Amino acid sequence: YPSEFLIQKITEDNQIPVHLHVSVSLQYVAGLKGNALVEFFHGNIAEVENEELRHLMWSSVLFYKTPNVEVMACVLLSTKAIYFLLDDSFIHADEHQSNFWNKENSDCENSSFHLSCCFVLKLNDLQSVNVGLFDQYFRISGHSADHIVTCLTRDSYNTHTFIQQLMAVLSLLARTPSPEPVDKDFYSEFGSKNTGKMENYELIHSSRVKFIYPNEEEIGDLAFLVAEKMDGLTNLQSLNILLYVLAFQVNHVEGSAQNTSSLQPKTLILTSSDLFLFDEDYISYPLPEFAKEPPKRDKYLLVDGRRIRDLDRVLMGYQTYPQALTFVFDDVQNQDLMQNLTLDHFGE
């Protein structure tokens, strides 16, 4: 252990996305290759001597306790747990949640010493995995609010690969059989016969961890919400969501020493007539079982919306993935973005 193929695969995956900045400590981790990476895992992260590192992924993560702070993490999947190696700046990012982290060592001011905190979610504590629309993100849930993490991969391939690896590792777990009779069908039933309401598509793994995928209703709800924001201009039947993608909106920082730009996470939705930007809550929905009250904000909050017919040009950067796109719209004075311009000019 481990095989040459696994070492090569983990080494290839150990690359920080170029558009995201991380601390020196995580840059050190990203510089490790081959056996050095495996030795680093066993020497500094692994909690049990005989656990095996199976998968490595770099991703932005959100915690249920700090839903407004998106932080870069190196996600390590082993045969015992999921480890989130976090940027050390995250400890100070949200003062209201200071008790969420053990800050015993956070007073190290020595510049040559770089601290990272590691959040551990044991596989035995794992209860469900919710996969987001079009595999752009997934939420891992344990038994309490401290054990809910969303990985914003913004990449269906990374999401799919991690879910496959997680299922494979869960298959190795020896769990005690549940006292209630096990369903004959491998897949759980689609919905409650009492309400007739379509539930999300569930797959119950042999380890009794639920993998929950969105169904067609979720797209329907999103289309309805978009139509509502369009002030009812469009017939809901003809409204098609062509694209749903988690992206960043680029805001240039004025007056900075370097020509820097800040990236604001946004959900981009393209229909046949409009382009929308939403602030989306990726961590609170669907509500966890222990939640006593609904989240403080809606799942989707409209930030901006433009008609495709007002689109003047699209500028594309020449850098490699991820691609930067600039949408230039005609500037119409005193024009409400959502105003109805489809009425006959000579009509009533």
From TrEMBL:
The Nischarin C-terminal PH domain extends over 241-347
For this record, an example GO cellular component is: endosome membrane
Q: What keywords tag this UniProt record? A: Cytoplasm
- The main location is cytoplasm
For molecular function, the Gene Ontology terms on record are: kinesin binding
Domain PLEKHM2 PH span(s) in chain numbering: 114-178
Q: Which GO terms describe its biological process?
A: Golgi organization; lysosome localization; regulation of protein localization
Locations listed in the record:
Cytoplasm
Q: Name one Pfam family in it.
A: PH_NISCH_C
PANTHER family reported for this sequence: PLECKSTRIN HOMOLOGY DOMAIN-CONTAINING FAMILY M MEMBER 2
Query: What's the name of the protein?
Result: NISCH protein
* The organism of origin for this protein: Thinocorus orbignyianus
Phylogenetic lineage: Eukaryota, Metazoa, Chordata, Craniata, Vertebrata
Q: Which gene encodes it?
A: Nisch_1
